What we know:
The structure holds two protein chains of two kinds. Chain A is 82% helix and 0% strand. Chain A has helices at residues 4-41, 51-66, 69-75, 77-84, 90-114, 118-126, 131-165, 172-182, 187-216. Chain A starts with a helix and ends with a helix. The model of chain A has no long low-confidence stretch (mean pLDDT 91). Chain B is elongated and about 85 Å long. Chain B is built from 13 helices and 14 strands. By secondary structure, chain B is of the alpha/beta class. Chain B: It is a peripheral membrane protein.
Amino acid sequence: MLSQRMLDALWQAFLDTLYMVGVSAAIVWFVGIPLAIILVTTAKGQIFEAPLVNRVLGSIVNGFRATPFIILLVALIPLTRLITGTTIGVWAAVVPITVSATPFFARIAEVSLREVSSGVIEAAQAMGCQKRHIIFNVLLPEALPGIIGGFTITLVAMISASAMAGAIGAGGLGDLAIRYGYQRYDTTVMLAVIAILIAIVAIIQYAGDRYVYLLKNR
Amino acid sequence: MNIAVAPYRKAAPSGAADSQKTSPTNPLHLRLEGVGKTYVSGQRRVEALKDINLDIYQGEIFGIIGRSGAGKSSLIRTLNRLEDVTTGKVLINDVDIQSLDTNGLVKLRRRIGMIFQHFNLLSSATVFENLALPLKAAGIRDKQRIRQRAQELLRLVGLEGKEDVYPSRLSGGQKQRVGIARALMLDPEILLCDEATSALDPETTQSILSLIKEINKTLKLTVVLITHEMSVISQICDRVAVLEDGALAELGPVWRVFGRPEHEATQALLAPLKPKISDDIAQAISATPADNTSRAIVKFFFDGTAATYLPLGILSQRLGGDLRLLQSGIGRLQGHPQGELLVSLPYQQHELAQRLETINDLVSTVEVLGYAVPANA
């Protein structure tokens, strides 16, 4: 069985993971959605049509999405040091997790936003809505179920990324699993970490699905 | 066999119902001058509209009909600049709407309500929130006022108490009623209907059409609607324009276009509404009379130019009295009775053509379809 010391360590790691993912998630939400809106509205035929902006931004997003997380983790070390002043610990992990998850979420949100029927946008234009009204009163509310669904997926991906960030000393559940479970052959800790991760993912997925269901079945 | 197709030449009658409603005595509301629209995609250029000239008067219900791809959607979208014209001008109350800046355009659109084939309601918002959107967009923040206006219009469209329902809980007809209420929230002067009944079943179509007509009367709105169904035009429109291949093929009061369609496109659109000669009569007809007792089968066509009634007694008298009605398809549009009568009369060699000549002033066209034995006709 797990010792008291181990339980404390697990608890601390759990909190660290929540912390890492929570802070990153907040940033991803508030950066990803505007990014998605820009990607959608600057596309051809949309309300802020600007092909050049669209192409440049799209390429940057694709570039980050193409880079594997484990490489991003290392490549971003200078940036992480610049922003957080350190390259280890919870805060240091927030930077790569955010940088990798934002483009991912932006693309998912973009798809949901793009699926808002052009007829509804046209109706809004016809009734004299200005562009900001269209974004805040039409695009975002109509795409919300899809965006929430996409955010759920993003959160799960971020939890898995946070575990990987443990490899470079980020702390959290992944770090614990590697140090005790892998390096010290402590299978119990490993299994405990996996159980906790499964529980977190299940809860997030359930909450996300439930919310989307409620939004869609009003 | 086809005798005497007499072109109708009588002067228009006085006091027909349509002439007060659509005559140019009503002030001009919308004017299209040489409107053209060309879509360019890569190397391909598609001319969706070609040199359209139209005047639409205040308070009329103006229908635009055409087959799919004729350009009617593009045309109605130029009226609130959801589409910009490539050439020509759209004038609303004498203002060239192309000259408006973004702000002016937004203000113009608030004076023009629009309803759509697929309703285009926000699925994420309740009926009330849907109705509130145009007011919010117009900068009206007063909750009380918005709620009051929404209730007023829901009463008008017959949906009291549905404020807090989401559109997914409504039927198609109810959704369109919400669409109409939303279009009227800012008290517009023009209502554009983009195939507003094309997604509805016949019964709901009836109720939506009568609602549009009622709104047109009570709110004194100018209504411009596009449709591909002639029945919609015949039920509520005062005047109709027929579009074919991006160009204006025909324009006039509905009864006139229905009574005497001149363009091939109009005739094609009207074809489904034309009565078919029933099978038993069609089979009984032969090209030549069997003997002197045979009866001639004759089709009279009334195009509606004639009068407010059809003088059947006089008609029968002039043709010798022995007139049998086989089939009738007479309707009444804007006070003009029009349609076809299929009758039989005694065949008398050499006399038939002469007799039919005598009713030229009563009937628009006369066509002898053939002959049948008296037992059959």
